[in-house]
Amino acid sequence: MTAVLKNAVTFEAVGAKAAAPTVISFRDVSKSFTVKGVTKQASHSINVDIQQGQVVTIIGPSGCGKSTLLNMVAGLFAPTTGEVVYRGEPVSGINGRTGYMTQSDHLLPWRDVASNIATPLEIQGVPKAQRQARIAELMALVGLTGNEKAYPSQLSGGMRKRAALARLLAYDPETLLMDEPFAALDAQLRLRMQTELFKLSRQLKKTVLFVTHDLDEAVALGDRCLIFSGRPGTIVRDVPIPLGDDRNILQLRKDPRYHELCGDLWEFITPDHDA
Ligand SMILES: Nc1ncnc2c1ncn2[C@@H]1O[C@H](COP(=O)(O)OP(=O)(O)OP(=O)(O)O)[C@@H](O)[C@H]1O
């Protein structure tokens, strides 16, 4: 392991967040699925605590149970053994303190941007005047002001992502569960969305679990990166990313610490690493 990682835990930003209250705990969690009488184990022996305000990136080979981990936090799947604890209570049923974002933006095609963002507020029964103020605030937050009346089909890929992000934030979830949300975007747009998500998550002090196949993205966005082994998956590394809250994602490629961390992650995931 390199010097950067050895010394990582001493960095102030990482240390302060590690001392924050625990929001999510996995305690000896395993998950299997039985389909047509055949049981497959997706993940096993998952033990991890995630502290308030941490952005935790998750990487690992396809099928190792990364999405399953998010689904268990959201309460969409129950663990087969062990428990997932959220703010001290076992998760049972839908966890309303979390919000989900995937590769697909799931915008409603028949509603304009403002109405899409309004949907969660309508469901929550927020009065119209408050709703309008909140929509304006969210549109500004994600840089979409002026596009209120546009329909999803009239938006670029990046604008759709921003609209989906604004709608997610309208629920004001404490924890954001993000499953490869930027995977379908071109490199430039992806970088912009990463920058925006990074700023927003820190500004709003959200706890974020972010699944990605992109190691650079895992380092650029995370305070910490969990590395999964192949299926049935478990967490084999928990790597601090001590780049701080004031990192400039657009300038990271010039930062030797960033390259060193990316190199370390590559080393950890190379197939013969544990051989
Ligand atoms: N609802 C389900 N029913 C049956 N099997 C499932 C279900 N959800 C996930 N699995 C299985 O559990 C395993 C882990 O799936 P999961 O989607 O969590 O992996 P992943 O690491 O997110 O994969 P990827 O990187 O390809 O998205 C896979 O073998 C998958 O087929």
TrEMBL record:
UniProt entry keywords in alphabetical sequence: ATP-binding, Nucleotide-binding, Transport
Alphabetical list of Pfam families matching this protein: ABC_tran (PF00005)
Keyword ATP-binding recorded: yes
InterPro entries, A to Z: AAA+_ATPase, ABC_transporter-like_ATP-bd, ABC_transporter-like_CS, ABC_transporter_ATP-bind, P-loop_NTPase
Annotated SMART domains: AAA
Alphabetical list of Gene3D superfamilies matching this protein: P-loop containing nucleotide triphosphate hydrolases
SUPFAM superfamilies in UniProt: P-loop containing nucleoside triphosphate hydrolases
GO molecular function list: ATP binding; ATP hydrolysis activity
CDD domains xref list: ABC_NrtD_SsuB_transporters
Start and end residues of each ABC transporter domain: 24-255
Highest taxon of the lineage: Bacteria
Annotated family: Belongs to the ABC transporter superfamily.
Protein name: NitT/TauT family transport system ATP-binding protein
Lineage, top ranks: Bacteria, Pseudomonadati, Pseudomonadota, Gammaproteobacteria, Pseudomonadales
